[in-house]
Amino acid sequence: MTRKFVEEAIQNARLEGFDPKPEHLCEWEKYIQGHQSLDETVKKLQTI
What are phi and psi of 20, to 5 degrees? Predict the structure, then answer.
């Protein structure tokens, strides 16, 4: 479920013109795998 949600969010962001870097996708993968919380993920994404 989480993976599907994240994949859809990334697709929507791309439609709006955002081109995620590999670092963005790596952080989302850590969240999907349960290695970090959503709050941790958001904080890390804001620094990229």
Answer: -65, 140
d(CA 12, CA 43): 20
Distance separating alpha carbons of residues 12 and 40, to the nearest angstrom:
22
Write the pLDDT tens digit of every residue in 12-37. 999 999 999 999 999 999 999 999 99
The pTM for the full model equals 0.84
Q: How far is CA 15 from the centre of its chain?
A: 15
Who's near 15: CB < 8 A, 6+ residues apart? none
Number of domains forming the structure of the chain: 1
The answer to whether the beta carbons of residues 3 and 29 sit under 8 Å apart is: no
Residue numbers of the domain that contains 30: 2-47
